[in-house]
């Protein structure tokens, strides 16, 4: 598959072009809708607090964090961290991203199955990310198939983590849309714009999963061909 020039070019495209395109799409969409205020004119921190309170998550706090698009939910400390632009912003983008991160807090509170599964994969996924290429390269240079196979096994945990991340992120976005609408933070005519922000952000996870899967397939094929 990847031995041919065409297949190799497809692989390079997946590895380089797709993630760059996804990042570009996110930045472009975020920039556009960070200039569009919501009808409620609530800041991202206010949006997050309202949705958390509406769902009885009074124990989850909200913090401002440095960086651009560095927003995330910390399940260990029960904290929704919002980048400064989104923490203080009144925009469609700020509301969408803040609600998305709160979506993860709701998942955590409800013990959402895919989120729990992803958390359980973290140790092996981290180990796989750090060790897989070392083992594979060592196996190639030393001509030891067992090392290559071990590297592939480690890599598979990292890839599985990326794949499990997809339903977690899409579910958080769906929850965000539902909460934004039901709470009156956005109106019906603002739903389409909000979805564009959430969909653009989701592209980065899809791109990461595609790249990880392509990399795993390439090494599996390399192992199979070398073992023949």
Q: What would your notes on this structure say?
A:
The protein has one domain (5-227). 74% of the residues lie in helices and 6% in strands. The chain has 7 helices and 3 strands; from the N terminus they run ααβββααααα. The chain has a 3-stranded mixed β-sheet with strand order 1-3-2. The chain is elongated. One of its GO terms (molecular function) is peptidase activity.
- Ends apart, CA distance between termini: 15 Å
Strand order, main sheet: write it out.
1-3-2
Helix content estimate: over 70%
Supply the helix-strand structural class.
mainly alpha
The profile of the biggest β sheet is:
3 strands, mixed
On the 0 to 100 scale, the average pLDDT is 91
Total domain modules: 1
Give the DSSP E fraction (strand runs of 2 or more residues). Answer: 5-15%
Low-confidence stretches: none
Radius of gyration: 20 Å
**SSE order, as H and E?**
HHEEEHHHHH
Tally of individual helices: 7
Principal-axis shape equals elongated
Number of E strands: 3
């Amino acid at each position: 598959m990847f031995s041919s020039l065409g297949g190799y070019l497809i692989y390079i495209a997946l590895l380089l072009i797709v993630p760059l395109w996804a990042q570009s799409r996110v930045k472009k969409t975020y920039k556009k809708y960070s200039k569009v205020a919501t009808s409620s004119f609530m800041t991202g921190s206010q949006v997050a607090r309202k949705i958390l309170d509406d769902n009885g998550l009074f124990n989850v706090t909200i913090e401002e964090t440095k960086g651009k698009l560095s927003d995330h939910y910390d399940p260990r400390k029960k904290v929704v961290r919002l980048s400064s632009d989104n923490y203080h912003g009144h925009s469609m983008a700020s509301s969408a991203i803040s609600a998305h991160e709160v979506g993860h807090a709701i998942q955590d509170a409800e013990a959402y199955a895919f989120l729990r599964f992803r958390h359980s994969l973290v140790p092996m996924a981290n180990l796989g990310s750090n060790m897989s290429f070392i083992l594979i390269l060592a196996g190639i240079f030393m001509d030891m198939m067992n090392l290559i196979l071990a590297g592939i096994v480690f890599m598979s945990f990292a890839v599985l983590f990326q794949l499990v991340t997809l339903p977690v992120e899409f579910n958080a976005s769906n929850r965000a849309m539902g909460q934004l609408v039901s709470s009156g933070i956005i109106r019906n005519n603002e739903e389409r714009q909000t979805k564009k922000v959430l969909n653009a952000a989701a592209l980065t996870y899809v791109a990461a999963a595609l790249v990880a899967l392509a990399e795993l397939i390439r090494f599996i094929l390399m192992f199979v061909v070398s073992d023949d």
